[in-house]
Design brief:
This is TECT2 protein. The chain has 658 residues and is mostly beta strands. The protein has 6 helices and 27 strands.
Length: 658
């Protein structure tokens, strides 16, 4: 634990159970903890133990009662070092001097470092780095005093500068933050100057320097800084031209349409925007004290064309609350406060092209009482009007991020297949784990634990683990696209399976009891995809290959503090990795590019292939038509000068005059 309070739960009937907490110092000679007994109390040092009994679950709270502030001068009852508390605790549950359960806690708590001083409201104005460097005098390190050898320091008087005027810092550190660069025509710092340097040098002022990070971009390269604000609706006309995949859905009030979703940290965020064409199914834990209502269901949704549609809401009552009420902290009595709350919300968006045509919402209500923990469920599903069945084919041919990967079992009469990963529940055992489909473009990692006996046969264990892993992949082929047809074999790619390594030697007998090598405990799914085109500007992604491999581990029976149980746990995992490759292999380098690197424009600032750079498509400083017109005019003048300077032209001119 790293905070002053931690909670745990004791599963089972707590009647007659005595809970105690003890400090467990580590023996310096052996490095082991001292043996615990049931003679402790609910207070040990600065630690307090509080138990809240329940029906089948008791909540155990361990809290620290000391001050965690850093010590000020002449202060007591505080932390002398930043690492304030480093202690080992044991929480015991005993009945009749017999230990029923024990919890080992390693506490490392740092002191509070909150700032309590005065905060200045003076703001420092930072200049625009495009035109002015941030630090005009980097060697000015001391405020209000002259830094020796720093001639650009404004605190240095002329008398002080005379002492070190000939030894000042040079370069950028000494204040020369805008030096001439090598490509400048007036720069003579290069020791070796090629003959063609005057043709390719840059004629520019020092105010336009690469040391500031920018060259002059021209009128066609004006950067557009995106705004984080939602555009305001200035009229009642059409606001949008349609949604694209991933765009947030807007309401009539020009705000985001939000539904609780899970964040990257795994916690639920109540005001998360709903993205267009992205399904999700989340579960959030809440109690009556922390329960909050979401957006009202009478909010109108922007269809994508500026029109607003009303939600079609159906309210239902939960019949079996046991699926949602996961645990109760105390017994329910007549005086317990209860409230009618939302248990689940299922949203179905019917869409066509870039617009939302209809929204159906099913809301399940139930009674939540004080002390109960509710598991709320929120689902969002987008269905195309062209296909409203459960096995919807995607509107566009390619895969969309967040959509399930299509699988097929071509060796069975029913070709429908599945590609799943685990969704653990409860204690995380494989026997109670459910499945969730693999979503395209989302790397994932899941697993569960398998109970293994100390006398387990290694061959049977390998077979059991392999069977558990293979249950995730009920398919022989994976669809190349989101609309792959089961009747067309060319729309599918065969799964490449790398079978796990199985040892023929039984290593679970004799002196190697409790140890099994080469257990295929990790399933690795690698999916290779690429962009193969675009539909209405949306990239279309296609799966090229799928490989399944196994990683083996050595299982060894693990013994805790007290080796009484003959059951150990083996964690098995499944990982999914999406690898993007280019649709076409890159063009290999020629022998000339490999041998003559000085002519490679990607490695040199100046190169021969860019001699006519202003006439190429890569130059964006001016419109291409203007560059081409100027280039042709220049070529005409050069050709005219060559003709006029030729001797035969003067002869022809003289003969014509005579």
């Amino acid at each position: 634990m790293s905070g002053p309070r931690v909670n745990s739960f004791f599963l089972g009937n707590s009647s007659g159970v005595n809970f105690s907490i003890i400090l467990s110092p580590i023996d310096e000679e052996t490095g082991k903890l001292q043996l615990a007994n049931c003679s402790g109390s609910k207070r040990a040092g600065d630690w307090n133990l509080n138990v809240t009994p329940g029906m089948n679950t008791s909540k155990v709270t361990i809290s620290l009662s000391r001050n965690l502030q850093l010590c000020l001068p002449n202060a007591t009852d505080c932390c002398t070092t930043p690492l304030c508390v480093v202690e080992t605790l044991q929480v015991l549950a005993c009945r009749d001097s017999v230990i029923l359960a024990h919890l080992l806690i390693q506490a490392e708590i740092y002191a509070n470092s909150s700032f309590t001083g005065n905060v200045s409201e003076n703001a420092t104005i930072i200049p625009n780095q495009v035109f002015q460097p941030l630090g005009s005098c980097p060697c000015d390190l001391t405020a209000g005093a002259c830094d020796v050898l720093c001639c650009c320091d404004p605190e240095c008087t002329p008398d002080l500068k005379q002492l070190f005027n000939k030894s000042c810092f040079t370069g950028v550190f000494g204040g020369d933050v805008n030096p001439p660069f090598d490509q400048l025509c007036s720069s003579q710092s290069m020791e070796y100057t090629p003959d063609w340097f005057p043709f390719l040098c840059v004629q520019s002022s020092l105010n336009n320097t690469p040391f500031l990070g920018y060259f002059y971009h021209g009128s066609t390269s004006t950067p557009k800084v995106p705004s984080f604000k939602i555009p305001l609706q200035t009229s009642s006309g059409k606001l949008f031209t349609g949604y694209r995949q991933g765009d947030p859905i807007m309401t009539e009030e020009n705000e985001y349409f939000t539904i609780p979703q899970q964040s990257m940290a795994g916690q639920c965020v109540g005001n998360a925007p709903v993205a267009y064409l992205q399904n999700f199914d989340v579960k959030c834990l809440t109690s009556l004290a922390s329960y909050k209502e979401g957006l009202p269901h009478d909010v109108k949704i922007n269809s994508g064309t500026g029109d607003f549609i009303q939600q079609n809401v159906i309210y239902r009552t939960i019949a079996d609350m046991g699926k949602f009420i996961t645990e109760s902290e105390s017994l329910r009595t007549a005086e317990v406060l209860c409230q009618n709350v939302t248990f689940a919300e299922h949203y179905t968006f019917f869409w066509k092209d870039k617009n939302i045509e209809q929204i159906n919402v099913t809301v399940f209500l139930g009674s939540l009482c004080d002390g109960e923990i509710l598991t709320q469920r929120f689902t969002v599903k987008f269905l195309n009007l062209k296909s409203t069945n459960a096995t919807e084919l995607f509107w566009n041919p390619g895969y969309q991020v967040g959509k399930p990967v299509r699988a097929a079992n071509m060796n069975a009469s029913d070709t429908f297949g599945s590609l799943n990963i685990w969704q653990p529940a409860g204690r995380g055992l494989c026997t109670s784990a459910t499945y969730t489909p693999v979503l395209f473009g989302l790397d994932s990692f899941s697993g569960c634990t398998l109970e293994v006996d100390i006398n387990e046969d290694c061959s049977l264990l390998r077979g059991n683990v392999t069977e558990k892993l293979n249950s995730l992949i009920q398919a022989t082929h994976i669809g190349k696209r989101g609309n792959s047809s089961y009747s067309d074999l060319s729309d599918w790619v065969e799964i490449i399976r790398l079978d796990p390594f199985n040892s023929d030697t039984n290593v679970s007998t004799g002196s190697l009891k409790g140890i099994c090598p080469d257990i295929p405990a990790n399933l690795n799914i690698r999916i290779i995809f690429a962009d193969v085109g675009a539909v209405q500007g949306i990239p279309q992604q296609e799966i090229l290959a799928v490989q399944i491999s196994y990683s083996t581990v050595i299982w060894q029976f693990q013994c805790g503090l007290i080796c009484e149980n003959s059951i150990s746990f083996l964690p098995i995992t499944a990982s999914v990795q999406f690898i993007k490759v280019p649709a076409q292999p890159p063009i290999p380098m020629t022998r000339f590019q490999i041998n003559y690197t000085e002519f490679d424009c990607n490695r040199n600032d100046v190169c021969w292939p860019q001699l006519f750079y202003p006439l190429t498509r890569f130059y964006t400083g001016e419109p291409y038509s203007q560059c081409l017109a100027k280039g042709l005019s220049l070529a005409f003048l050069v050709l005219l000068a060559a003709i006029l300077s030729n001797p035969w032209f003067s002869k022809v001119l003289n003969s014509s005059l005579v």
